[in-house]
């Protein structure tokens, strides 16, 4: 393991003004989003959508790394140029989702365990050969009546740590993503308690598995009320609660934290990230940035709708969201940017 190379990659991914673009939706997830907008659910439509994304002019000004899916890392532009080459030429580091999805956890109704450790060493070596320099693994924690259980939190934290150690052995920076879901009517306080327990357990496991903290990126949820909770705190309260939970649980050695959007609107995701950086940046030991999928892609996808004629408008929307989030990374986002 080349520790310095891992640290350099991690720091580049969370550099000032930069964040990550998650475009690693599995085929079923991507197809579901296409179906809602009447876009054909085919390999070619998925390829065309990803070509639109990676060829967006100026994307590299705000995006440091793009997380790809297994199908996508093997795909090319219409003219035959591999996506990995297009990204690298744009100054964007290619990454790869390597988990095999969340499956029912035995003896734990309503809870999931992320699979994909079998054969992972070999797959990481292949992805590294294809040009990936970082990887992602997502664990899902659902708040509910009497859940999450210790069994679910510990099993997922253990898998995340084994994955992270294998990534570093292969020279890839692991993105460690334990996501506490927004679905449900739980309060912000309940999300805070669960998030802190999850992060504490994850870092315990990372430590036990000898993972180099400087050479990883944490991808957590923000601390939020559930989507159907009657009380929805304002942007500043969310920012304060999230920063507090991270300060209590994430070691200062970690290079960066890049949030998932998790179903928040594009504007709210930017505003909340911005409030954290604008209000607390000088007091934080790690960089705070974004690793959004829906909050960057969705407005552009709704404009594209699978039509060649809409490509430029969709790319403009994608570029705009990337810029807004870059500003939020600096603590310089303003809602007026949305109207500009
Ligand atoms: P969202 O930003 O849409 O939550 O996606 C982030 C991600 O990569 C989920 O694993």
Summary keywords:
about 350 residues; two-stranded antiparallel ribbon; alpha/beta; TIM Barrel; binds 1,3-dihydroxyacetonephosphate; globular; eight-stranded parallel barrel; 10 strands
What does this protein structure show overall?
- The structure is a single chain.
- The chain is α/β, with parallel strands linked by helices.
- The chain contains twelve helices and ten strands.
- It has helices at residues 3-13, 27-36, 43-54, 70-73, 83-89, 120-130, 150-169, 188-208, 235-249, 266-280, 294-304, 311-330; strands at 19-22, 63-68, 93-97, 102-104, 112-114, 134-141, 173-180, 217-218, 256-259, 287-292.
- The strands form two sheets. Strands 1-2-3-6-7-8-9-10 form an eight-stranded parallel beta barrel, surrounded by eight helices. The protein has a two-stranded antiparallel ribbon with strand order 4-5.
- Strand 8, helix 9 (235-249) and strand 9 form a beta-alpha-beta unit.
- The longest helix is centred in the middle third of the chain and has 21 residues, at 188-208.
- The termini are far apart.
- Bound molecules: 1,3-dihydroxyacetonephosphate.
- 1,3-dihydroxyacetonephosphate (13P) is lined by residues 22, 138, 177, 260-262, 292-295.
- 1,3-dihydroxyacetonephosphate (13P) binds next to helix 11.
Task: Write a short abstract of this structure.
This protein is of the alpha/beta class and 340 residues long. It contains 12 helices and 10 strands.
